[in-house]
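Recall the central idea of this unit: under ordinary conditions, the amino acid sequence of a chain determines the structure it adopts. In this exercise we apply that idea directly, starting from the sequence alone.
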Amino acid sequence: MVADELVADEFSAGASDLERYHYGWSVVSCLPATMGDPRTSATGAVMRPATLRRYAQQAGLRSVEILPLQTETWRFYRLTP
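Accordingly, the structure predicted from this sequence is:
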C-alpha cells in the first residue's frame, strides 16, 4: 500500500491551493531529502498516478489500483506483486 498527496492526475498551472501547498513541500523538503540517495528516483512527494504506475511497472509489479478511500488530502494505492 502507498499513500501520497491527493493532487490532480496531471500538473497544471491552475492548481488548487492545497496542491500548491503539497508541491511546495515536495520541492523544499521531500525532493532534496531524496536527491542525496542514489538508490532513489529522487521524486519527492506529489507522485502523480502515472508516475507511480511507471515505477511499479519498472519494479516488476503486476498492477496499481487507486483505492476508493475518500479523504481531503491523501490518495491510497494498492500495489500487486
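The chain has a mean pLDDT of 92.
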